[in-house]
User: Fold these one by one.
Assistant:
Number 1:
Amino acid sequence: MNAPLENDLYLRALNREAVERTPVWVMRQAGRYLPEYKRVRAQAGNFMNLCSNPELACEVTLQPIDRFNLDAAILFSDILTIPDAMGLELAFETGEGPKFGKPIKTRADVDALPVPDPNDSLQYVMDAVSTIRRELNGRVPLIGFSGSPWTLATYMVEGGGSKDFSKVKGLLFSDPKTLHVLLEKNAQAVTHYLNAQVEAGAQALMIFDTWGGVLSPTNYQAFSLHYMQLIVDGLTRQADGRKVPVTLFTKNGGQWLDLMAKTGCDGLGVDWTMDLADARKRAGDTVALQGNLDPSVLYGSPESIRQEVKKVLHSYGDAPGHVFNLGHGIHQFVNPEHLTVMVEAVREFSTK
């Protein structure tokens, strides 16, 4: 039996309910900027060992909660666990990021991909979710997550990260049918994966569409948003007697917030390239907004961090439905003390 939730500010904000202060968490909050994370990462030997060890994944998930008293924990994992479970042989090269040993090259490769059973090849993720939920003991909600079908496809076709996305965009323009088959499989896999995370104990969900912003408006709708819509339609939205809110985040997707808001999601992540007042107008006050401090602000002085926090809170205004966050993941060279300044400033300036 899971403990009752002591701090539900994050869930209430996503439901656009009145809150005593703006809740705050940080994308990539368990990561390389924390010395305690680096110690556990060294103990694990490599990144995938850390992801696939439920006890160690739990330990690093809780580190930023213990240090900063944030209002939500997010599962420590990686967006590329699904393609790895599909047999693409994920490896993380030191200093190079993720690489797939068997990238997608042909229609036959796509047709051969299985839709993984999350309680089989991804059981280690579910074990991590249930372990974290137990160890949190009701302190704050636990967020589960996945990459979007399009973002997963970029890595699967490129074989890793990319600057110009030539292979996946080449597929989009030369053989869109094959890309749609791949995206359909990815959408099925993500839906099963996120629902299994809810069953294991996740209390909110987030879909990271990191590379949706590299698409043209019509291609964004056809190749990214359409497949996120399929996932939203297929998600478990109630558990433990509460709503399970889902947040969509397309980096560089501010121009499409109105379309994203119509999917039926509960929240939208906003990066730092858009003012939150404009984002609210575009989304029509129908969903909560998460964001959107420029991560580089954390390289500034404590006073400048406080002023930038104040600007973000002011830009959103007094209405309910704001979750404070960075506009993307925290940088690995940030001084953790500067994140403390940010979190304390959010609490100070947003308390009603």
Number 2:
Amino acid sequence: MYYQKNEELIDSWNKTLAVVAKLASVPVALVMKIEKNNISVFSKNNGTSDNPYTIGNSECLNGSGLYCEQVIKSQKILNIPNALSDKNWNNNPDLKLNMVSYLGLPIIDETGSPFGTICILDNKEHVFSETTIELLEAIKQSFEVQLKQLHQQHIAEEKQKLEELSILISGLSHEINTPLGIGITATSIIESNIDNIQQKLQSKSLNQNTLTLCLSTIKESVNLLSNSLSHTAEQVEKLQDLLICNDVNNHQLIELSSLVKSTLKKHKDILNIGNVKYKIKHHEHNDTLAFVAPHLLKQVLLILCKNSLEHGLADIPTPSISIEFENHLDLIKLHFRDNGKGIAHSEHIKIFNPFYTTNRVMGSSGMGLSLAKRIITQQLHGEISILDSPSGVHFVITLPKCAYLSSNK
């Protein structure tokens, strides 16, 4: 199941069990998990040489005679101060590891089925206090809550993946089917006009006007077909850009404020549509150095600006875009804001999905923000997110100040 590979959960439980073992004054604290017909060590207290158990070690569950088998079958607490003096337990397998005393509780998973046990063991007689029992019960309940939360998170993630896939398929279908439909229609018109010319030639009734009209129609149809094919190729190329990440080696330490100014100046013809005012907020005494590939960050800036121009700032009386820098020790944040219509909070989780758009009827493909995120996260090794804003939209781009060290270096 999904939590079997959740290293973060195991690490958290290991640390908790280490505290439990210390407070209970025992060498061993474990979480044992049912694995089909076996029971295995899922988590353990680390940092002590007195714990003979290793994560992943397993034993056959049924008929094993283990302490934990009894806990799982009874779904009740098992408290054994000294197995050597208990005729029911003086031959149990854990005695081979010198585990003389045992206190264990059952853990159930998010479905209410047995998950395994949480237990503490000692290599000598140990009468466990009420405080220790209450502590173990509290930890058990905490672990069960975590399992339920992890399950809910897993369901939410799977649901989101399905929604993203649905958006991707729907968007791709629209972007491909529309030009394909146009192409099929144009081809049909071309074929019809060619047939008309051939029939006129065979009947020797083709005149100059008919030929001119047919050729004009064919030419228009060819242009329409060519434009449709070009649009399809462009969308496929954009999708390839999203799926294929090519590392770039021209990262350099640059001043972001200078890059932003030069980008807005260079592309002012397309960015000044609608009399938008651009404000760059930068305190001169603060550097805005970041380690980036300039052409990629310029591409992201253009995407964000165009996104605002096309979606947020239309019909806004005094449209404006502001870019502000926030300096930190190892990173720098670029705040991109506009005073437009904004994006509903419910849409925040979707806007970076490929082909997601609320403006498809106006020709938007929904590829811009997804491409921006891919560039920022995969090639510039940063992050991009959208924040709630009282007006307009507010994106935050986080970039490293020093060279990114990849795992293959």
Number 3:
Amino acid sequence: MQYLEFEKPLAEIEGKAEELRAMARANPETNVEKEAAALDKKAADMLGTLYKSLSPWQKCQVARHPDRPHCKDYIEALLTDWTPLAGDRNFADDQAVMGGIGRLDDRPVVVIGQEKGHDTQSRIERNFGMARPEGYRKAIRLMEMADRFSMPVVTLVDTPGAYPGKGAEERGQSEAIARSTEMCLKIGVPLVSVIIGEGGSGGAVAFATANRVAMLEHSVYSVISPEGCASILWKDAEKMREAAEALRLTADDLKQLGVIDRIVKEPKGGAQRDRTATIEAVGREVRDMVEKLSGLSRDEIVRERRKKFLNMGSKGLAA
């Protein structure tokens, strides 16, 4: 288990409990189970207290936890007959974006998501989940295919944002993001999205302009990262805590604002503490969202999705 900055007191208690059990394994005559159990209870209580009142910045840290399940984990656990599809038929295949066809139960679906990687090598290969233009053009190609064959689209969002490199800009990064967002609005099949970690900037919106948007309890979704916001507004990236507060990037805030539709509860201590339970919870939400949209006609699906985004923020403007 990798501990976050605010979890250090918890790490000490759980570490002491593990030391006691290691001592008992080395010397079977040593009876320390009672003391270890007491430490376990203390750690569980502390874990509940910590995660009951996380600040927005702490939620950012949890959303970025390397042990959270990633796009690849959800695909492997929830889908059968998975067939990955690669390339944008124009420039290259972007490893930051996964996409393909699979079965969710018995229903064929197209799944598209950002993958960050799980170790140093895979993170570099996946560009830390930051897509280049060819990644968004791959997503466009797959959405067009899903529309042609009447398959629902599921997107899994986990990116700090689109890759801001020179080559990406030269190949039309902003245009690719805009086209992907436009395709999300155009397709006549159900489109549901889940923010499973970070939802950063246009890189996330290009996947999450959906009929229904769900968000894991400790995920974040915002127009810019707290560090980027702090650098622009205060010329000081260390002001990220203040920026996180101002951005209103938590699931509770975004549900209240009408930006997302559902919040998926995470296990106590975050998704990284029980990856299986988290994946199962997301699977239930995705099935339910797709099922509730499947009875609509193509025109109703497009109209409902466009209306959702056109009306976003209207209550605040009226007030």
Number 4:
Amino acid sequence: MNAKNTHSRLQPLQLVQYALLTVGGLIMVFPYLWMVSTSFKAGGTWFNLSLLPEAFSLEHYERLLSASLLPRWYLNTIIVAVVATASVLFFSSLAGFVFAKYQFRGREVMFTLILATIMIPTEMLIIPWYVGIASLGWIDSLPGLLMPSMLTAFGVFVMRQFMANIPDELLDAGRIDGVSEFGLFWRICLPLSKPALAVVAIFTFLGHWNDFLWPLIVTNSDHMQTLQVGLSRLSSLETGADWGGTMSGAALASVPMLIVFLIFQKQIVRGMKLSGLKG
């Protein structure tokens, strides 16, 4: 009887919590819905807060795809995000494996120094990055866009924390069967680290997809710019802001991020529980 009373007393509180969460969710999602709606509005009705366009129009998408370099910006961003994510996954998992499974002098000091780089603001690294890439002749090129982000301290940390919990007995069994040291990493540790790999891949991909500062600095020509830099030109007040084109471009730019979240949301939660909170 007491349990039933307690349960009935908790229901109104839960309803209030759900109501507050629903209101908060609607407030957060409204700007995105308005952006998508505005991309379909005819010119002159952009600032109407209604979510339903008065006149449904595809003129902004047609103009954006035909009269701008959006396809090229999209391709550049995909290449940078995919290649950088693949590089971070490989090198971060390899470094995490070494720090987690091998004992060597200075291991903890090196790992601490790697983690310390997380505290360095990106703005402080821009100048040495630029000088180094300029000396290699990679300004305004894909290698220049990619080079600073081929390995991240966050990826090394997540992979090290996860791999530290893989039993050493599995590696010993592999050595008895004649597996090489790289084989232990590639054939045993890496397949068992899929949750952590998913976390690193998702955050790395989204980070590079939304990156603005470094592509803005390292690219000069229009055809080498990434999506975020290109879209910023559409909303430039100096050249006359194209709000319809900006909203259409932003809506198209958000599609990959939505797909990633919808497909991998379970992996994000599971990976953070298994790797980010351990050790």
